[in-house]
Structure formats: structure tokens, C-alpha cells
Design a protein that fits this description.
3-stranded mixed beta sheet; alpha/beta; globular; about 35% helix
Length: about 250
């Protein structure tokens, strides 16, 4: 939604990068025509992934960081929203920065760094303001066992078994399809053409928690389904405080 608001590109896959000098959108060949029609070419440059002479987004940022560093302008800071970028994205970009720095005399130089903008939040939200549509609250429905195949308690047991092997005390599920699969629930309307609902989940060795808007649980049988599986329901915005509290306990990870 934020990408569409900022760029007018409505495709389901793409990443926007805004710098002091330009605005760029990376997308794959499925959306080249759509992006070409929807982007304002006076402001946006379409970066066609996989095409000759088109760098990946990470390579582009690394090259920019290296040039900035060589010019004596310091480290390139890349602001991201950690709620919409994976840990792997941050890891890969950091590695690309380190590889690019090998061209320098001091190979340990930090030419680029990631800033999760904790102090500011997502930078699009302040300019979107009251025009931003509300977060969808389409109701969950129970996915029948004849199709799910595995019960929620059995899935939780398998996850906890893996957690013990890895000596983990908390698992966090942020992908909506993961949450839908884990709890054997589906929803229609939150995401077009995909039967998932906006929610998070955490599993510790003592609790299983679903974080979502309470309105999403009003359909017949949903609350009973979760209760029978031993699932605790908390407000959507409580996931971060819960993780932070868990992490402060000695021995937890």
C-alpha cells in the first residue's frame, strides 16, 4: 500500500528506493509494462530486474555507497522499515557493502549502514496522513481439518521440537501465510487474491499467541477453534512489546 501510494505502481512485487537525487523502482518482467504505464517518468526510473546492464538494488546501493565514501562524504545510510523488510534483506545488503569496500585501501571501512528508523517510523506515513485507508479487518474462518491435514497442536509440537534442537525460547511468525497455516485459518479481503489475514504469531515453550484485531475473530467457531488449541489472543500491536519482554529475561533467545 505504501509503495503504491508513493509511486502509483500497483503491482504485487517491487521495491522502491528514494535518494536525494532520484527515485527508482525495481520489479520483474511480469510488471515491466504495468510499471511503465503507472510510474511518472519525470520522477521515477524503472529498474527492470534481470535485464542487461541493470544492477540489482543491492549492487546499486553498494556502488552509490562506495562512490560517496571515496568522495569523502562518509557512510551511506539506508533507511528501512523493519516491519516490511526481512532480516535476510538486511544481512545481504550488509554483505554487499562489505564486498564493495574491498576496493578500498582500508577494506574494513564501513561504506554503508542500515538504519531501521526507530525514532521516526516509516517515512511515508507522515505524508500519507489521514488519507491512508484503515488496516483491513476481514474475518478469519476455520480451515477444515480435511483440507488442513495437521492440527494446530501437532504443528506447535513440531515447532517446539525444532526450537529445542536449536536452543531457541521464542519463535516469531511475521509472514501472513505462515500464520494462516499455523492456526488452520484463512481470511478473504485483507490481501487481494490471497486467503490470508493480517496477524502475527509467537510460540514459546509455554505459550502460543496470535496477535490480531479482535474483529477478525467474530466469525462462528473461530474463537472456539483457537481456545481448543490453547492459543492466546492479544492485540496486533502487542507483538513487539511481547518480544522485547521475552528478550530481557536471562537465558531467552
Amino acid at each position: 500500500m505504501r509503495r503504491a501510494y508513493l509511486s502509483n505502481f500497483r503491482g504485487s512485487a517491487g521495491t522502491a528506493v528514494v535518494t536525494h537525487d532520484g527515485a527508482f523502482l525495481w520489479t520483474d518482467s511480469r510488471y515491466f509494462n504495468e510499471a511503465g504505464l503507472q510510474l511518472d517518468a519525470t520522477h521515477w526510473t524503472l529498474m527492470k530486474q534481470g535485464q542487461p546492464k541493470v544492477p540489482t538494488m543491492n549492487k546499486y546501493l553498494a556502488d552509490m555507497a562506495l562512490e560517496k565514501f571515496k568522495e569523502g562524504k562518509g557512510t551511506l545510510k539506508v533507511g528501512i522499515d523493519p516491519y516490511v523488510h526481512s532480516a535476510n534483506f538486511a544481512k545481504e545488503l550488509t554483505e554487499v557493502f562489505a564486498t564493495a569496500a574491498e576496493d578500498l585501501e582500508d577494506r574494513s571501512s564501513q561504506i554503508g549502514q542500515i538504519d531501521t528508523l526507530d525514532e521516526y517510523g516509516n517515512l511515508i506515513d507522515p505524508i500519507w496522513g489521514d488519507e491512508r485507508p484503515p488496516v483491513p479487518t476481514s474475518p478469519f474462518r476455520v480451515h477444515p481439518m480435511e483440507y488442513a491435514g495437521v492440527s494446530v497442536p501437532d504443528k506447535v509440537a513440531k515447532i517446539r521440537s525444532e526450537m529445542k534442537k536449536k536452543k531457541a525460547t521464542l519463535s516469531v511468525f511475521a509472514a501472513m501465510d505462515d500464520v494462516a497455516y499455523l492456526f488452520n485459518m484463512r481470511a478473504m479481503g485483507d490481501v487481494a487474491t490471497c486467503p490470508v489475514g493480517i496477524a502475527y504469531a509467537t510460540i514459546s515453550h509455554d505459550e502460543v499467541i496470535l496477535y490480531c484485531d479482535s474483529v477478525k475473530l467474530e466469525a462462528p467457531g473461530v474463537k472456539e477453534h483457537l481456545s481448543e488449541a490453547g492459543v492466546i489472543v492479544r492485540p496486533y500491536d502487542q507483538v513487539v512489546p511481547t518480544i522485547e519482554t521475552h528478550g530481557k529475561i536471562k537465558g531467552n533467545k
